[in-house]
Amino acid sequence: MLTSTVLADHGKERIVVRQFGKGALEAASKKGITVIIDVFRASNTALALLELNAIIFPVETVDQARVLKVDVTVGEEDGLRSEYFDFDNSPIQIKENAEKFRNKRVVFRTTNGTRGLIRAKGSKEVIMGSIRNLSAVIEYCK
Fold this sequence. Notes:
Layout: E1 4-10, E2 13-18, H1 20-30, E3 33-37, H2 42-51, E4 55-59, H3 62-66, E5 72-75, H4 91-96, H5 98-101, E6 105-109, H6 113-119, E7 125-129, H7 134-141
Parallel strand pairs: 3-7, 4-6, 5-6
Antiparallel strand pairs: 1-2
Helix pairs in contact: 1-6
């Protein structure tokens, strides 16, 4: 299992790949740029929402989601849609129901993706990467 790999070291500036949850917490403590990469669904769902100009409120728990005043709820628990959420963590569902998300306030909860975002909140910057926006993430980090 990958725990920590240094990709590049330029003195004070380093690119390090770390294991997801622990890595997000450590990156936040260093106050650097944290890139959360969830190559499966969370990052692609978030990107689909952003493409529709949705305002996303990532949360770690369903209880946190319940207290927010939003237009639509998107999420899952352990890979399954909870009864609380209007939509599953699916970029396809987002695209198929685009008008329900366009310019809306959306609570977003996933088992791993949103947890990583929240754990990295102390970072100088937090970026969410996916296969679809990989080149933009690389260019931004340069």
